[in-house]
# Entry
Amino acid sequence: MMFDTAGSAELVFAVCHIYATFNDTFIHVTDISGRETFVRVTGGMMVKADREESSPYAAMLAANIVCERLRKIGINALHIKIRGKGGA
# Structure
């Protein structure tokens, strides 16, 4: 699904599902209905060592990849849904 919004002020939305666990960070971007996946990246895909999968650095690298891919297909607005493990 390709969008052509060059020169257009129209917002093209998607939903970004972020799931942060103690072992990894998942970033999954879908269309508004959730049926079509645009991008799915994890922190473990960005680093070589298993111990670094859950690090903030791996999550930052994954977020950069997601942003680049979304710009290529023309998505310029996101709804963000965050789930995570942990406590106070």
Q: What stands out?
A: Strands lie at 13-20, 25-30, 37-42, 77-84. The chain has one helix and four strands. The first helix runs from residue 56 to 73.
